[in-house]
Amino acid sequence: MDLSYSDEQIMLRDSAERFVDANCGADNLRKMRASEEGFSRDYWKQMAELGWLALPFTEDQGGLDGTAVDTNVLMEAFGRGLLLEPYLTTVVMGGGALKAAGGADDLIGQIIEGSLLLAVAYAEPQARFDLFDVATTARKDGNGWVIDGHKAVVLHGDSADKIIVSARTSGDRRDRSGISLFIIDRGASGLERRAYPTVDGSRAAELFLNSVQVGPDALLGEEDQGLAILEKVSDNAITALCAEAVGAMKVLLDTTVEYTKTREQFGQPIAKFQVLRHRMADMMMEYEQAKSMALVAALKVDSEDPIERRKAVSGAKVQIGKSGRFVGQQAVQLHGGMGMTDELSVGHYFKRLTMIDILFGNVDHHLKQFSAAA
Q1: How far is CA 269 from CA 149, 238, 257, 263, in A?
Q2: Contact of 88 with 241, CB cutoff 8 Å
Q3: Contact status, residue 154 vs residue 227, Cβ threshold 8 Å
Q4: Which residues pair with 212 in a beta bridge?
Q5: Strands (DSSP E) along the chain, which ranges?
């Protein structure tokens, strides 16, 4: 199997890396996290003009009909630059949910032109990483619905124009059936948002839905059948995050190798010490394993075989979690006490890798998922 990038993917990678090199990185992160929204609307507009917001959508929807590998090419570059723009939440998750549900081409068009930001509210405080553990309820009220509940750690939930919410329309709290998806406006009556910064410099929000009334057109897909869409969105988000983590690991590896060539002890660069050379070789091995597993996940995430898909996605998430922790810890340690200072970029990449490990299930959770599918 030829796993090399196509000419179009190489052009996409080069374009994304030029954008990241010119605009992103730790300095931009420090600037953006102090801003009102936590990201740049100007950068978002440029990303729309470059066609990146259209990448995963079909040509009929106005998109570029890109694959998961194409998305990974972008996300790996974003990981190199600590990009804070809501690409994961708006395009991969929100757009992915609209695409899977069908019949929302007008909203997809708004995503592509950069005028609509989305968030997906799937997590709840009691649920850990189980997508089907949903206590939020939606009951019929005339032709519409009334939604009540609490959604936790909604990424970019404070800046999203619309939010896709999972709610139980039948069954008990941990039933796999009976979950539906609804799309609600940010200004909906009864919706309370409490925003806060996350450890990696990004933004999230707690959502409290107090008898939020929505019309019948707010239902995405079929009633009680929302979990399948949510699982597809989750798998695609995990795949994209794995690629982002690979980009972040590459920066940590290169930065650490370069630092050890300039930092001197006992009259010579510390890169000449055998024990440190072994450590950096181990970092390289972890990076290469993570990169390979991320590519496997991208190739298998759209597989019709649920077992093959589950093993590829959960296997990659396990490897990314382990590799990210190892590469991050070694980078911090080899930089000494300044490794976790705000002034140095190393700590910011390590924090992002730590956040990626937790999102959509940590190593232990996906190890169980992988074992159950094997």
Answers
A1: 57, 39, 11, 5
A2: yes
A3: no
A4: 147
A5: 118-121, 137-141, 144-155, 162-168, 179-185, 191-197, 203-214, 219-220, 264-265, 268-269
38: left (phi over 0), alpha (psi -120 to 50) or beta: left
In the Cβ-directed half-sphere of 176, how many Cα atoms lie within 13 Å? Answer: 3
Q: 6-24 pLDDT, tens per residue?
A: 999 999 999 999 999 999 9
Of 363, 364, 360, nearest to 123 by C-alpha is: 360
β-pairing verdict for 179-185 and 191-197 = unpaired
Q: Which residues pair with 166 in a beta bridge?
A: 181
Decide: 100 and 221 in contact? Cβ < 8 Å: yes
Separation between Cα atoms, residue 271 and residue 293, nearest integer Å: 29
CA-CA distance, 107 to 95, in Å (whole number)?
A: 8
- Token pair belonging to 193: 């948002």
The residue type of 82 is L
Please, are residues 28 and 85 in contact by the beta-carbon 8 Å criterion? Answer: no
Give the Cα separation of 30 and 349 in Å (integer). Answer: 12
Query: Is residue 186 within 8 Å of 195, Cβ to Cβ?
Result: no
Pairwise CA distance, residues 280 & 283, whole Å: 5
CB count in 10 Å sphere of residue 258: 11
Q: Which amino acid is at 25?
A: G
Per residue in 168-204, pLDDT (tens digit) is 999 999 999 999 999 999 999 999 999 999 999 999 9
Task: Supply the pTM of this predicted model.
Answer: 0.96
Closest CA to 220 of 163, 135, 148: 163
Structure tokens at 285: 């091995």
Handedness of CA 261, 264, 270, 273 (dihedral sign): positive
Would you tell me how many other CB atoms lie within 10 Å of the CB of residue 128?
11
